[in-house]
C-alpha cells in the first residue's frame, strides 16, 4: 500500500492494525558508463513497493537524494550533507510518530547512506534518552540494505562472481534494466572490471575511479537477471520487515 | 529527460547545450476524503515530466515531502520543518551548481511550499551576496506553481467555478485520477463545498476543516478533466521554462 | 502603548485585557538616490506606533534588520540570512508566549521579508503540530504589509499612477519625508522612472537596477503626501489588527 | 550620522574616509517597578547617537532584543537564545564587511549580552582563523558597555553610592527619565534597596529578586541626573571609539 | 609524541616530516557492574599513546565523550548528540588542516561512535566536493577501532570464546585493569553471561540489558590479559597507521 | 572521585549524597616557546582531580579542546567554534541532568573559554526559561578559573610580579613543569618579557605576539613553584566548590 496513493481515512484505518511503515531511501549519483543516475533510489523504491504488496505494509514516499558527496565529480550526482539528511530523516519520523507510527523500516539502496541514517536514528533516540521520564513515544528504526539477505548475496555470487564489485554493480544495474527495459545497454569499459580501492572526497574518487565504477563489470547486467534479483530481494526483505514489526 | 533514467555521460552531454534543470517539488499530506496523500508530489512530478519531454529539459528527482505542518492533524501527512526544507533545497542546488547548472526551475504542487522555498532561494543567493567579489557562480532560481498559468486558471474556473477552493481542489484531484484511474472515487462529503478560512497549526486546521478540504468540492473531479488540466499546465509551464532559461 | 516605554507591572496589567501584540519589522537597505537606508524599518515602526495609539495595542521593539540579501551591492545595506531571521522571529514569539501572549501581528515594511517571516511562522507552528497532544499553547501569527489595504493602494494610485513601482517607491519615501522632514530632497535620476524586472543575488540586482530603484519615481515624494499615506495606513491596519485579535 | 537616515550614496561617501561603524545593542527586559522594559536598548541607542554626532561616526540600527533569558519570569521580557544572537551579530557584521567596513564598535546597554556578543566575535574571527591564507578581510570588533568609563563610574558612585546596584540601577533609570520625561515616576519598593545575589534561569531569578531589581534603589533616579550621566558617557565612549578606529 | 606535551615549535618541526596525526576517541558510559565508565576513552587513549610511541606519530587530545545516547539509562553516562559530535570532529580536523595536517587517523574505543564519526568525515569531505575547483586542501580521514585487527580478534577468541560479547567485554575491561590495577574487581553478575539483542533508546536498552552488559562475561577480565591485549592492539594499529599515512 | 574510574553503580551511590559534579575544561593551543600545547587542559584537569580528592566530588572527563581561534596561527592549536562549544557544554549538562545532577562546576584553564561557556550556560537556562511551568529540572552552572582565588593571585604576584602576563604565564607553565618534570626547560626568548596588547583573529594575534606569549616571562617557571601554585589553587577552588553545591 503506497502512502501516496491512499487517502487519510485509509491511513487512519491502517493504523488500527499496524504501526509499522516502510521508507525507501536511495541516492542520485553516477553509476558508471551504463548505469542510471537514479539507480539507488529506483531500486530501493521498486523493492519497497514489492515488499509493501507482499506484506500489506504502508510504503512512504522515497527519499531520492541521499549522502553522495564522493560522486560529485561526475555530472548529475546530487548530495545532501550528512547534517541535512539527519534533519530529513528526523522530520519524516517525527511527523509519522505524531500519527502513532512506532516502527520505521528504511529500505536502502545506497551504501553511502548507512552511516548518516544510522546517526539520524541516534539523533532521534537521543531526544527521548536525554529526558528522564520523557513522554515522547518509544520507537524503533531499522535500515535494511536490499542486497544483504543471504539469498541475495548467493545469487549475485552465482551470477557475477568477483565481478560484482561495490559500486555500479551488475546486480543493481540489472534491477534497473528490469524496471526500465529501454535503458538496457552495454558500452565499452576499460578495464573490463573496475579497480577496487578507497576514497575520500569527490576529486579523490574521480581520480581513482575514472569512469565511476568500483570493482564491477556492469556489462554483465541483463533485465532477466534483474527479475531474479528483484524476486529474491523482495522475499528476503519482506521476511525481515515482518520480523521487525513483530518485535 | 529524467535525470534518474540517464547516465552521467548523458548529463555531461546535456550540459553542453543547456545549464537549466527542472526540480519537481510537492508534499505528502491529506487531501480530503477522496484525494490522495501524494497529490501534490504526484501532480508536480507528472507535469514536470511532461514539460521535460516537451522542452528537452532535464528533470531532477522529485522532492516528495515539503512543508505541511498544518496537515499533521490528519494521519499520513508528513512535513519537513522550514529550516530542514531550506537545507534540502540548498544542497540540491549547490550539488548541481558544482556541475555547471545555473538555472533552477522548481515546478511546485503545494501552496505551503511557496514561502519556505522562496526563503531557501534567498539563503543560497545570500552566500554569494555576502562576499564582495565572490567567485561562486551566479545562479537563478524560480518557483512555478503548476496551476498558475492564465489558461489553467480559466480552465479550472470553467470546470468548477467557485467550487475549486484552495485545498483538495477538484483540479488537483482530477489530475491524480487521470494519472491513477484506479483511485477515482466519489465519497459523501458534508457540506458539499468545504468552508473557507485561515489556519495556524495542525490542531487549529483540523478543527476548522474537519475533513481536510478548504473551500472545495472534489467530488466534481474526473480523470477526463485531469487530462485537459494536464495538457494545459504542461503547455503553459513549458513556455515559462523556456523563457526562464533564455534570460 | 510601546513596550519599551512601560514597566513590567504595566505589561502584567495589559495581559489581563488582551493577549495581542504588534511587532514592527522592516529592513536596512538602499532605497535609491534619495530614499533612506532605514525606510522600511522607520515606516513600519511609525505606522505600528500609530496603530498602537489608535487601538491600545502593545507594540514591541522593531526588528530593524530583515532579509535584504539582494540589496548588498549598495553600501549600507544589511541582511539577516533567512535562517537567522527565522530564529529571531521564533525567539521573539516564544518569549512572549511565555507571558501569555497568543496573537502576534507583525506590521511589515519590506516585501523581501514576506517569504521568510511566513516560513518562520510555520517553524513555530510545526513545533506544536509535530507533537500529538502537545501542551504548548496554540498561537496565531499574522504578517500585514502596511501598504496593502484597499485605501492605501487607491491612494498611491491616485498620487503616483504607474510611477509607484515596487522598490524605493514614492509612497514609502513620502512617509519618511513626513517623519523626518529634514531628509526631504530631490536628486537627478536617470531614467526618471526606474526599470522593472526580476533579480536574484546582489550583483544581479545592481546590474539590473543601477541606482537601486525598481519601477519607481521617488522624486514625486513629498512630506504632505506622507501624512495622507500615514493616516490611511494607520486606519486600515488598525482595523485589521482588531479583527485579528477578535478571532 | 544615523545609517537609517542617510542614503546609500551617503554611505559610499562615508567609506572613503572611515571604515568604522557603531552598532548599539541593548535588551528588552523588566527593569523593576519603575524602570522601562526598553531601558537597555534606549540607553545604548541614545548614547550611540550622541557619540555619532560628536565623532562623525556612522551609527547602525539598534539591536533592541538581546540575551535576557533570566528576566523571562517578568511579563514583557524578550530574549534571543545565545545561538540566535550569535547569528544576528555575525550577519550584521558580514553584511557590513561586504561594503568595506572593518571596525565594529558595539555600544552595549546590557550586562547579559557581554558573554554572548564576545562569543559572536570569536565565531566571526574563527571563520578566517580556520583558513590558512584566507582572503576574507581582517576585521576588529569591540564591545563597549556605556557605563564603564572611569568618569561614569565615579559619577554613579557620587550620585548613588552603594545604592547603584547591578540591575535596574538608578543610573540607567535616570537616563531614560532624561530621554522620556513623561515616564519619570517613583513607586513604593520594598526593601528600599534591593538584595544582591546570583541567579540561573528565570524562575530562579524571580524567586531571588521578586520585583526584578538587583542591589539597586531606582527611586533615586531623576532626569537631571540622567543628563549628567548622558554627557559623561558620550564623552568617554566617543574617546574610546576614536582610539579604537585609529588602531 | 603527545600533542599536549610538546610546544608549538615542536609541532612546526614535526610537520616537516609528517602530515599525519592520531586522534583518540572514546565514550563516557556505563560498562556493566565492574567496568569503568571511562573504559572506551581510556582504552582508545592508552593504545593511541602506544601507537604514537611506536611510530613517532603525533597524538592529539582524546575526545572523551562520544555518541552514547543508548546508555543514558545508567547513571554517569554522557552523550553528545550526533549533530554535536559531527561539529566537534569537523572543528578538530579543520583546525589541524590549517596547520598543514592532511591525514587524520582516529583510534576509536566505542562502537557507538562509528556511524556518527563516519558521517562527520563525509560532512568535511562534502565541503570540498560541493565546490568545483575548490582550493580547500584534500584530506583523508580514517576511523580504526582498536579491537579489529585479526590478531586482536584471535586473542579475544582464545581468551574468552563466546563470552566476549559486544558491550562491557572482558577484553576492554582487562585493558582498563592493566592500566588501573586498583580498579580490578569481580562482582556477582546474573546471568554469568549477559544476553544478546538489539536496542533503540535508553529506556529500551536498560530494560533489555538490566546491568548494562551485552553478551559478555567481564568477570573473566584480568590485568595480565590486558597487557597482552594492549600489546597486540598497539602492534596491529601501528601497522595500519603507517600504511594509512603512506597512501 | 574520577567519573572515568568508577562504575555506574558507584555513580548511583554517589547521587544519594550529592548532585554536584566538577567538569574540567581547558584548551589545546600554543603556550609560547617553552609552554606545552596542552597547558590549559592539563592544569584544569590536575587541579580538578585535586579538588575532587579533597572534597569527595565526582570529576567528569576533561573537555580538552576549547575556544582558541586566536591561536590558530601557531601549529598544534585546535579550536572549537563557539557554536560547537555551546553544543558540547549543553549535551554534557543535559546528559548529567537526566541522572539527577543539578550543580555543574566547571574548573577552567583558559581565559578564551569564559565568554562562550557563559553563553552556553544561558543557552541551557533559556530552554527552561522560555517555557512557563516547564517541568525541566532547575540547575545551576558555574565557571571557576583556577587562578582567580585571592591566594592564587597573591602567590603569582609574589613569584613573578609584573612578569606574569596573561598568556603563557609563568604560573601555568610552572604547574605543567610540576606535573610533567621532563618537560621543564628554558629557551631564549626575545624580548625577555613579552608585549601586551589586544588581538582579533589568528593572523592578527601572531603578528602582534610573534612567539605566542602575552606580557609574560615563562622562563621564570619552575616545578617547585608549580607545586605551591597547585596547592593554593586546590585549596581555594575546593572551598568555592563546597560553597557552590551548598547553595
Ligand atoms: Ni548504487
Ligand atoms: Ni494539494
Ligand atoms: Ni522599502
Ligand atoms: Ni539594564
Ligand atoms: Ni566499551
Ligand atoms: Ni593558558
Automatic annotation (TrEMBL), chains A, B, C, D, E, F:
<keyword id="KW-0378">Hydrolase</keyword>
<keyword id="KW-0479">Metal-binding</keyword>
<dbReference type="InterPro" id="IPR024087">
    <property type="entry name" value="Creatininase-like_sf"/>
</dbReference>
<comment type="similarity">
    <text>Belongs to the creatininase superfamily.</text>
</comment>
<keyword id="KW-0862">Zinc</keyword>
<dbReference type="GO" id="GO:0046872">
    <property type="term" value="F:metal ion binding"/>
</dbReference>
<feature type="region of interest" description="Disordered">
    <location>
        <begin position="189"/>
        <end position="218"/>
    </location>
</feature>
<dbReference type="InterPro" id="IPR003785">
    <property type="entry name" value="Creatininase/forma_Hydrolase"/>
</dbReference>
<dbReference type="Pfam" id="PF02633">
    <property type="entry name" value="Creatininase"/>
</dbReference>
<protein>
    <submittedName>
        <fullName>Creatininase family protein</fullName>
    </submittedName>
</protein>
<dbReference type="GO" id="GO:0016811">
    <property type="term" value="F:hydrolase activity, acting on carbon-nitrogen (but not peptide) bonds, in linear amides"/>
</dbReference>
<dbReference type="GO" id="GO:0009231">
    <property type="term" value="P:riboflavin biosynthetic process"/>
</dbReference>
Amino acid at each position: 500500500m503506497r502512502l501516496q496513493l491512499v487517502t487519510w481515512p485509509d491511513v487512519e484505518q491502517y493504523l488500527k492494525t499496524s504501526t509499522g511503515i516502510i521508507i525507501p531511501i536511495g541516492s542520485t549519483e553516477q553509476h558508471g558508463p551504463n548505469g542510471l543516475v537514479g539507480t539507488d533510489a529506483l531500486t530501493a523504491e521498486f523493492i519497497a513497493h514489492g515488499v509493501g504488496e507482499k506484506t500489506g505494509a504502508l510504503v512512504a514516499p522515497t527519499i531520492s537524494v541521499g549522502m553522495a558527496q564522493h560522486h560529485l565529480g561526475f555530472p548529475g550526482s546530487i548530495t545532501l550533507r550528512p547534517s541535512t539528511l539527519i534533519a530529513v530523516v528526523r522530520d519524516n519520523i517525527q511527523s509519522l510518530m505524531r500519527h502513532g507510527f512506532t516502527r520505521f523500516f528504511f529500505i536502502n539502496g545506497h551504501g553511502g547512506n548507512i552511516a548518516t541514517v544510522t546517526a539520524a536514528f541516534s539523533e532521534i533516540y537521543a531526544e527521548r534518552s536525554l529526558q528522564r521520564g520523557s513522554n515522547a513515544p518509544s520507537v524503533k528504526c531499522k535500515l535494511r540494505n536490499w542486497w544483504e539477505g543471504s539469498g541475495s548475496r548467493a545469487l549475485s555470487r552465482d551470477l557475477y562472481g568477483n565481478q560484482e564489485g561495490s559500486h555500479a554493480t551488475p546486480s543493481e544495474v540489472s534491477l534497473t534494466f528490469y524496471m526500465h527495459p529501454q535503458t538496457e545497454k552495454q558500452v565499452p569499459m576499460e578495464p573490463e572490471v573496475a579497480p577496487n580501492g578507497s576514497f575520500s572526497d569527490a576529486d579523490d574518487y574521480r581520480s581513482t575511479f575514472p569512469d565511476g565504477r568500483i570493482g564491477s563489470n556492469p556489462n554483465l547486467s541483463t533485465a532477466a537477471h534483474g527479475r531474479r534479483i528483484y524476486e529474491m530481494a523482495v522475499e528476503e526483505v519482506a521476511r525481515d520487515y515482518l520480523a521487525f514489526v513483530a518485535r
